[in-house]
Amino acid sequence: MTAPNTLAATGTAVSLERVTKSYDRGRVTALDNVSWAFRRGTFTAIMGASGSGKSTFLHCASGLDRPSSGTVRLGETDLGALKETELTRLRRDRVGFVFQGYNLVPSMTVERNITLPLSLGGRRADRGWFSEVVHRVGMAERLGTKPSQLSGGQQQRVAVARALVTRPEIVFADEPTAALDPRTAGHVLRLLREAVDATGQTVVLVTHDPAAAAWADSVVFLSEGRIVDELPRPTASAVLTRWETL
Predict the structure, then answer these.
(1) Which of 52, 59, 196, 243 has the most neighbouring CB atoms within 10 Å?
(2) CA quadruple 193, 197, 198, 200: dihedral, nearest 10
């Protein structure tokens, strides 16, 4: 097992310290004493077999769920010290999410879906940044379109734009390409990669696909609720080889 990485607070987007998450009155442990830190401006993939704890890891790291014990920090903010309303505001303003199911509002246009996190927070979009984001994801000509008029890949590109429009400190992507064909999946993954390389964004991708993980700077492997390995500078073949040993 690799040792937890240690980073200065100023270089860390999110850190987990001895995080455990149990269910069913402690009879089921989904995360077992996990410590890890995600450096700002990096792209990390999280992989593991079904039941390994990767979704629970994402939920605890992003503030969607609270751990049973341990500490999760966004930058220097201890998420465990926040009330539910404060945690909701933090997720909306400082964290971006991309999910497998897109989670777009059917009645809203592409533009309104993208700016929804800002609207909920009573904020106006920075028009220059908004323009850059929608051009980057290739949706500038479809802003008045409803989600039902878009392909799955286009809907996921809208979801990526929505995750980026608030300039979040970190973006969590949970199996964002699982429902897409390989070519379309590559387009979405390239958008996430460009967000890291071009704008210094921090991205954490949960995936079961070695080809998707190969877009990351490193791959962290989970097994039975614990981090068991890290693969830097991954290739699809190297990820697959390590995946098959889990």
Answers:
(1) 52
(2) 110
Strands 218-223 and 226-232: antiparallel
CATH number of the domain at 12-243, please?
Answer: 3.40.50.300
Q: What is the pTM of this model?
A: 0.91
Contacts (Cβ under 8 Å, ≥6 apart) of 150? 110, 142, 158
Q: Which two tokens stand for residue 28?
A: 């089921």
Largest CA distance in the chain: 52
Cα separations (Å) of 158 from 44, 58, 163, 232, 236? 22, 21, 9, 30, 27
Q: What is the reported pLDDT for 3?
A: 34
Residue 22's nearest CA partner among 53, 46, 50 is 53
